[in-house]
Amino acid sequence: MGSKLKSFGLISFGVVAGVAASLQYSAIAQKINAMPLPLEKLSEFSEIFGMIKSDYVEPVEDDKLLTEAINGMVSALDPHSAYLDKKSFKELREGTEGKFVGLGIEVGMEDGYVKVVSPIEDSPASRAGIQPSDLITRIDGVPIKGLSIDDAVKKMRGEPNTKITLTIARKTEDKPIVVTLTRELIKQHSVKGKVVEPGYAWLRISQFQEPTLDDMVKKINVLYAQDPSLKGLVLDLRNDPGGVLPGAIGVSAAFLPKDVAVVSTNGQVEDSRRTYFAKKEFYLGRAGSDPLAKLPAAVKNVPMVVLINTGSASASEIVAGALQDYRRATILGTQSYGKGSVQTVHQITDDTAIKLTTARYYTPLGRAIQAKGIQPDLRVEETANGDGFNALRSREADLHKHLSNDKEAESDAAAVDELEEEKRLIELAKKSVPVDFGSKDDFQLRQALNHLKGLPVKVTPLKTAKLDNAGEEAAKIATPKNKSATSKQ
């Protein structure tokens, strides 16, 4: 098997509800060491395998037993390691290209039902009139209450040109709405932006995919064409689950000094101990001209605020952490998810692979994000009255068997506060509606603009946890002259 093994590096958070996961296909030279096999345990496995084959109530295929054994072995390691069968591997590869076959809706869960967060522009869902906050109660006439979000999404995925019927509950309608849609190839654009008011622009990255860097460069040029004298830029990474590592490095490099360290990784394998710099070879991944060379020079110095929340994970945390460490931007919002581990995809056959956690990643100052996340410089909740749905989301540290943070002991100090606030937050969430990011009702965006203008910001103080004091150390590496100090991390 060793001769067939092929490795791919990735940093991803996982499947976004209704949107394919992201994958980086940059080859990693991986040395496979011959390890002594635990013969006693292998003998025990063989005995149990034979017992199932001979004594189980009905015949079981060898392939099913061995596949499930592999799946169990890998998934028992941590929440992000997994065996990828043919379908899962195909979906993972599709996600990196920003396209998938489905209906074109980003979804979440509410009261056991699938809730529409937003339809993707020019998709079957948007053309059928599906709206944000719609609840999907049935798929092809079968009730879905109680299904996991992943299982519900799998039911909505399928082959191109196949039909699916959704039953929808809408607050403004007395009766259920039944719509039939045809699945098609969905191309998702991960970058959007606009000039929100004279002198100030909003740039949103919803996921880091292969086209993200090129799309961001195009969007920034459009923004500067609309307003050449921008005085402030808000980079919105809220609910961005991560994606490809080169995309995160490229986005960071767009705003940071030339050639500085962006992120480092450390793991058991030698190739996993690396530092990634704001250089073309680390973010381009292909031949051709550097897309960042097309950016206006002013983007390097424009005052910035980066928006994050509990849904900001992995690659988005790399960007936020790097810009925070270099004091390039003010981070505003709520604590990020804390997905600070690297997954490498080892292709086993043409159609299957395993996704294995191989390293932790660190900000330029050496802060481990795993199970901790990025703490904002200015803690501002989702709404003026509280954090709404965001406050009830789980984080990496809540996952069973999550990888620990190797830089400091994990603390449950905030748990006391969560217990005291649980009832209030649940009631608040019931009254909340999803925030339309970038709209006039986007409270966090308004606060970001206030900060850029030097106006008061409605900050929410933490009761039990202390914010990271990255600022005191950031000045030590604020110029490229100190890049050698970070390359050893």
Automatic annotation (TrEMBL):
Record's keyword annotation contains Membrane: no
Keywords: Hydrolase, Protease, Serine protease
Domain PDZ: 89-157
Keyword Magnesium in annotation: no
InterPro entries xrefs: ClpP/crotonase-like_dom_sf (IPR029045), CtpA/B_N (IPR055210), PDZ (IPR001478), PDZ_6 (IPR041489), PDZ_sf (IPR036034), Peptidase_S41A (IPR004447), Tail-specific_protease (IPR005151)
Short name of any one Pfam family annotated for the protein: CtpB_N-like
Signal peptide interval: none
The family this protein is said to belong to: Belongs to the peptidase S41A family.
PANTHER family, alphabetized: CARBOXY-TERMINAL PROCESSING PROTEASE CTPA (PTHR32060:SF30), TAIL-SPECIFIC PROTEASE (PTHR32060)
Protein name listed in UniProt: S41 family peptidase
Taxonomic lineage: Bacteria, Pseudomonadati, Pseudomonadota, Betaproteobacteria, Burkholderiales
